Amino acid sequence: MPARPGWGPPLPPPPPRDDIITGVFRAHWMIIPLQIIAVTLVFVALIGPILVMFGFAWLVFMAVAVLFGTFAYALPSWWYGTFGLREDHLLVHTGLVLRSAREIPLSRLQAVDVVQPLLMQVFGMAELRIELAGGDGSAIRLRCLPKNVAERMRAAVLAHAAGLPGRAPQAPEWPFYRLPFPLLLGALTFRVPILVSFILLLMMATAFVVFLEPGVLGAVVPLALGLLRYYWGPLARYTDFYASLSSDGLRLRYGMFQRRMQTVPPGRVQAVRIVEPMLWRALGVARVEATVAGYAGARQGDSADLLPVAPRSTAFTLVNEVFPESEAAVVPLVADRTRSAGAAGVDERLFVSVRGVFCRVTEIVPVERIQTLRLSAGPIARLRGRVTVDVDTPPGPVSARATDREAAEGRRFLDALTEAGRRARVPSAGTERWATRATMHAESTQREHRVEEPEVSPDDTPGK
Amino acid sequence: METSESTPETESEAGSTSVGRPLDAAFAAPEGSSWRRIPPALAWYRRLVTTAACLVAGAGGCVLLLLWDRPLWAGVWVGLALVVAALMWFLAGLFQRSWGYTEASAELYLTYGVLVRQLVVVPYGRMQVVDVTTDLLEQALGIATVRMRTAASTADARVVGLPLADAVQLRDRLAARSESFSTGL
Question: Which of A173, A411, A442, A459 is the most exposed place for a label (fewest CB within 10 A)?
Fold first, then answer.
């Protein structure tokens, strides 16, 4: 097998026998031994110590029984766990005792990821994840596929979601940003909490060596765990980070022990925030996080980052790519009434808010993605005549709001956002089948220009 | 961008005594419409619920404290429950009067809240689900709640205390408009 097909240049066209859009597929048979080994090992590790008390023969006997039991379950469930494409629907059959068949309209997908954990990389396998908007339980996970099947399935799924025939070749892509490892290492180190933890860790280690006081270790363990989570975690995850743009949306490839390839189709990013921790501002770098409706619950933290570390200008360029026809950096901002750095602004396309004295967070929501708008004033804010405008988006890292506004100013914000949203939410602004929709959209805008009445006004006089 | 140039004069305005007025203006209905208010049945609903809760809590606590042989504390507890019930009785009226909704051309405006005043704008195209619910007490009073779900889970978009017929009509109108304004997620 060639080293890393698919991560590099596109694959040659597959022979018709392996046509991905017809026929039924299942995971590689390798999943059976993997499942058997995993279950047996867990059994031996958990129940083993108890069984050893009855004698070693018992342990061996029970382990063999579990091994065959798992095999008896894994083989038919592997055989019956199939998936395949039917037109632009994906059919997934799972389960042995409780059979389930899901039919997924691919035009509704939110993101497609190909994930390769370390063990899977060794065997040349990959997992395909198709994220839907329904929250945590709604993602489709096709485990343990041969690498090339996963790649071609991903391309076919994206083609169907774009409204093209499934045999359409993978959309061409052009490089956007490659994160150099020294920058990742430097930026991850150069943060106040990490530096403080390192210094504390060093002081503890010195104290332990000098005074031979074992109590110090009690403080070292949580510090080390924290560093593992917030320093080593992102370092390992974002090694070899590479972002590229294509007509299928943003493609991200990253990871050392777990290779991931994420595809976020156009219009799936609901909101974006640019995070600049205090020391990063001196370096001029930032992190870009996004709210995507599919990445709910636990996967939010895994997949929310669009750029882990990037120069500030690159971050804004990415935002402009994600929200086309808009310019986040030129939205006029109005400072709020407190002495902090808070500011917010609206233009035709975007709502931008900036907050945070130390860690500056710039939150950007395109007006056509706003779900609801809220103007609120608590008891203290009412006494001071201040209001807050909240811009609600689907659950995610972004929560944009304009805080501490004068009442009239807050209302103007609300009205401006409502007005801009009304203009932006034309029916052609939907995001399903983006490839064929682009032509539709062009036609409809031409029509609008001719009529010179772009306001949405179907017959909707509220019944009084 | 009209917000940028007019900030200094609003600063000087709000510094004077008329703090309440700009706030009322900020929470006013959109231009060319007025708030449709909720009938007083909502206040009675809230009063009945809060009074019942206070009575149960007061009586239960009173019995427990008497069993524990603390008659003075039992009296204090009952008094406290009555004060809370009276306060809630009074607030229920304010709460009912604070509610209002109006259907603009492309979005639904809601306002409510006594302590935290809110104005919520829900575009019709963003409504994923519109449903009408009424519990037993609401049925007895002949009122219903219209609840709108959007993809954002933070906002609690609902219209409470509408007469049942109005609620059903509102639900039908909103559902029809959410269909005609639909733009996906």
Answer: A459
The dihedral sign for the CA sequence A314, A372, A382, A386:
positive
> Between chains, do A462 and B173 touch, taking CB under 8 Å as contact?
yes
Sheet of strand B143-149: strand arrangement: B129-133, B143-149, B157-163
Structure ipTM: 0.81
Phi first, then psi: what are they for B117, rounded to 5°? Answer: -85, 135
Maximum pairwise Cα distance, chain A: 87
Q: What's the CA gap between A271 and A297, in Å, rounded? A: 17
The confidence score (pLDDT) of residue A464 equals 33
Question: Which residue ranges form the domains of chain A, and what is each CATH number?
Answer: 25-177 (2.30.29), 180-232 (no CATH), 267-425 (2.30.29)
pLDDT cut 70: percent of chain A above it:
86
User: CB B63: neighbour CB atoms within 10 A?
Assistant: 11
| For chain B, domain boundaries | 41-95
Residues in chain B with CB shorter than 8 Å from the CB of A382 are 23, 117
Does residue A459 have a pLDDT over 50?
no
C-alpha torsion angle, residues A410, A411, A415, A417 (rounded to 10): 20
Longest dimension (CA), chain B: 69
Alpha helix stretches (DSSP H) within A175-251: 181-189, 192-211, 217-227, 233-237
Rounded distance between C-alpha atoms, residue A399 and residue B7, angstroms: 24
